[in-house]
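INFO batch 0412 | record 1 of 1 | parsing
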Amino acid sequence: MMTKFCNICGRLAAETETKRLVRDHNHKTGLIRGVLCDLCNGRLGTYESNKLRKRNKRYMYWLKRYELRIKEHLTTNTGIRYLGWRRSGVTA
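INFO prediction complete | emitting tokens
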């Protein structure tokens, strides 16, 4: 279910720099997992790609603070396929 707040940090769209939330989707299946603020969306991409940034104190703080929410978010899907998603050999 889509919400008006980030699924990871809980910030409302109005509290973010861009004043909006983005749809996060699984890049393998194309299924939408929910909505995230730009900050969490970018950091989640780093987390998923295994680009360890242990020297980045802000990233490590975010990871430690929201680790349980991150793992829960990654296992969630709405069953709705992201419209812009395309993958060869997969049909909607």
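INFO post-check: The mean pLDDT is 80.
INFO record closed
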